Amino acid sequence: MKKKSFVFLISLGLALSSLAAAPEAPALLKPLPQQGLAATMSAQILTRHHYKAQPLDDAMSEKIFDRYLKSLDPEKLFFLQSDIDQFAAARTKMDDAIGTQDLATPFAMFNLYQKRAQERMIYARELLDGSFDFTDKESYRFSREKEPWVKTESEMRDLWRQRVKNDWLRLKLAGTTDKVIKTTLAKRYDNSLSRMNKLKSEDVFQLFMNAYATSVEPHTNYLGPRASEAFDISMRLSLVGIGAVLQERDELITIRELVPGGPAARSGKLKVGDRIVGVGQGADSSPVDVIGWRLDDAVDLIRGKKDTVVVLNVLPAAAGPDGKTQTLSLVRNKISMEQQSAKKSIMDIKQASTTRRIGVITLPTFYQDFEARARGDKDFKSVTRDVARLLAELKKEKVDGVMIDLRDNGGGSLAEAVELTSLFIGPGPVVQQRNSSGDVRVESERGAAVAWDGPLAVLINRGSASASEIFAAAIQDYGRGIILGESSFGKGTVQTMVNLDKMDRSARLPGADKPKYGELKMTVAQFFRVNGGTTQLRGVSPDIGLASFSDNESFGESSYDNALPWVQIKPANYQVLGDMKELLPLLQIRHESRVAKDRDYQLLLEDIKDFNVQRKVKMVSLNEVERRAERDARALKTKEREAARLADKGKGDKKTTKAEQAAAKLAAQDDGLQANERSLADELAAEKARKDTRDVLLDEAAHILGDAVDLLQSNLKLADQVTPGLARKNRAAQ
Questions:
Q1: Helix (H), strand (E) at residue 458
Q2: Which of 31, 235, 348, 417 has the maximal Cβ count within 10 Å?
Q3: Contact at 8 Å (CB) between 281 and 310?
Q4: SS3 state of residue 349
């Protein structure tokens, strides 16, 4: 065996032998000098320039204290009441900690949390050496957010006994042997400790500063240097690296996805599931062992400057811990994150006497490479540019209608939302902004040309927020298209990025590295629809609603305790392009008639009903007989569905039922595993199942748009009512 391989095996053995090793006490984390200054600078900005500026006083201190505790221990599984009492005096001192740049108290709170967490995990490990009586009539409350803090250590130990017992029972019901259960849970608790011990000062500071920022307003955040870099990458959709999506699994950096066209994919030497165990800089370098590293630390080594060489030690996916590693060199290059770019597809929708071709453009985010645009790069990345190109392609492919899929699109660039809207409405106001002084500014694209003037629909869900809501609201207010899905998130505020590095005026020695302070994402304005209303709190309501799993009480703007209220201002001066009031009732009737007979859609409604019932459950039985009865009932229901599907096929129904296949996977019996404990193949298959379920709604939305095309083409009078303004705009432009 080569020396390098031997060293690797020792390292890997140490990483995987943690099941038997006694955990080390976590190192006490301390604030870095620059963090105190970053806190003070942030406070100066938030108290003076925020849209909802509030003083940093004792009242704000109490909010910060409570929010910080909640972020540390949301389910009240670690701290005792006595721990909370220990820091009671700090409840009105968080403002002083920020103002005096003395962060000792918030770090002390975190260090105690980390100590308690280690104690709980050690106790959980000890419980695995005993046994559990699953004949007892006992229950475990797994949702504890609204519960009081546990008062005594004995009560806490009993709570964790129930928690571990539930973990064991879930695996037992899945058919796992006691030996495997013990190994699985031991590794789970060890991994929790390992992740906790990898936390750094930057993580603690970001957690504390976000407790402050979100106490001001829900969409104000502090981003540490690493988080700031990740945000920039998400907006420009590019980075320099090898083109691999990585994931930490069992202390090893695992390849989850290869980006098409990237160095890793082009090499042909890497595949999904391979583990990166060493990283070197330069063709002749010796790779540094990265086993057990934090994912972002390993990523920092793998990324680098364009055209430089990175050397990787790789343990193949099929190899065991003692497998032979491979060494390869890759040249870093600019990677375009195409999975987050706009994409198109075409759906053929069968109507009574014809087939309608519906073009679907999916937008995961409103992206723009701000830096490239600022420096005059003619080819800067932009969602509007990409969509304009896709619309031109769809026109050549002679689609009958276009649907913009904004589901789970959390927003992005406000400028892109305005420019994208103009592709469908032409020149005119898109959104109104009001700043903290009450000044209102109308955002519009005066010289915009219409890229698509045909039938249009926008598909939204509860995850559609901010820029997505600006676009959907403008399309609705102009009468330009049909809004389908469910009410959107309700985020009607505008944020700007404040680079704290640029605010630092402190002197330093020549040649000394300049500290990095991070950035503030701060709310500076509220946006309003052109009709004078706002999407804040209420979101955009669909013209035709579709089935939804969303829980408005726990997700969306209305779930925040300090969200800005809904208000209204004067409408902008805009020209309505169409009137949907004659069309929508006809589409609603067709929609209801179709889904009543659609087995896929009815199955989805049944799943939603079951999900809503389960969502209200906060406690589970720890009695094996009771839990088996619940499991068997779910299994019987799934079996009956499959039998009904097969019976339908026997009657000549040849329709492919993606929804039923997806539902069967999602309704499969609880395997008792956490996501990172399943095989990568199983995890990717589960993602595919979730996508298939989403396709049911996309299919129905496409049918609704197909109905609109059918009605408009068969009724010229109706068509003239729906889009007369756009026709006039086109004639005027010509």
A1: strand 456-460
A2: 417
A3: yes
A4: strand
Go through the chain and tell me how many residues it has.
734
Nearest-angstrom CA–CA distance, 369 and 364: 15
Residues in CB range of 171: below 8 A, 6 or more apart: 180, 181, 184, 185, 671, 672, 673
Q: What is the 3-state secondary structure (H, E, C) of 471-531?
A: HHHHHHHCCCCEEEECCCCCCCEEEEEEEHHHHCCCCCCCCCCCCCCCEEEEEEEEEECCC
Token pair for residue 459? 């598909």
CA 209-214-217 angle, to 5 degrees, is 140
How far apart (Å, rounded) are the C-alpha atoms in residues 709 and 728? 20
**Structure tokens given for 532:** 């004078």
Which run of H or E residues covers position 223? strand 221-223
Number of CB atoms found within 10 A of residue 62's CB: 15
Q: What is the pLDDT of residue 72?
A: 96
Provide the CA 143 distance to its chain's centre, in angstroms: 22
**What are the residue numbers of the active site?**
466, 477, 491
Q: Which of 229, 250, 332 is nearest to 292 (CA)?
A: 250
347 touches 696 (CB < 8 A): no
614 φ/ψ sector (left φ>0, alpha ψ -120 to 50, else beta): alpha
Tokens of 39: 């806190």
The full DSSP string for 117-154 is HHHHHHHHHHHTTS---TTS--EEE---TTSPPB-SHH
124 exposed, middle or buried (CB, 10 Å; 0-12, 13-18, 19+)?
buried
Lowest mean pLDDT among 72-76, 196-200, 208-212, 607-611: 607-611
What is the H or E stretch that residue 695 is in? helix 680-714
Mind listing the pLDDT tens digit for each residue in 419-475? 999 999 999 999 999 999 999 999 998 878 899 999 999 999 999 999 999 999 999
What is the spatial distance between Cα 213 and Cα 431, in angstroms, rounded to a whole number?
Answer: 26
End-to-end CA distance of the chain: 77
Cα 650 to Cα 520, 551, 632, 641: the distances in Å are 61, 38, 27, 14
Residue 395 binned pLDDT confidence (cut-offs 50, 70, 90) = very high
Report helix angle 658-666 to 624-650, nearest 10.
170
| 440: exposed, middle or buried (Cβ count in 10 Å: 0-12, 13-18, 19+) | middle
Residue 600: which of 692, 668, 706 has the closest Cα?
Answer: 692
Residue 41 banded pLDDT, cuts 50, 70, 90: very high
- How would you list the strands of the sheet with 544-545, edge to edge? 343-350, 355-362, 401-405, 456-460, 482-485, 544-545
Record the tokens describing residue 637, joined without a space. Answer: 């229901």
Of the listed ranges 553-562, 615-624, 652-661, the least confidently predicted one is 652-661
d(C-alpha 732, C-alpha 734), whole Å: 5
Both tokens of 537, joined, read 């709190």
Structure tokens at 329: 């060199």
Residue 703: how many other CB atoms lie within 10 Å: 22
Neighbours of 610 (CB within 10 A): 13
pLDDT at position 683 over 90: no
Strands 493-499 and 619-621: unpaired
3-class DSSP state of 66 = helix
H or E element in which residue 39 lies: helix 33-49
* DSSP H helices in 338-466: 370-374, 383-396, 414-425
- Is the pLDDT higher at 352 or at 395? 395
In angstroms, the CA 174 to CA 672 distance is: 7
What does pTM read for this prediction?
0.84
Neighbours of 630 (CB within 10 A): 13
Q: Residue 519's Cα: distance from chain center in Å?
A: 20
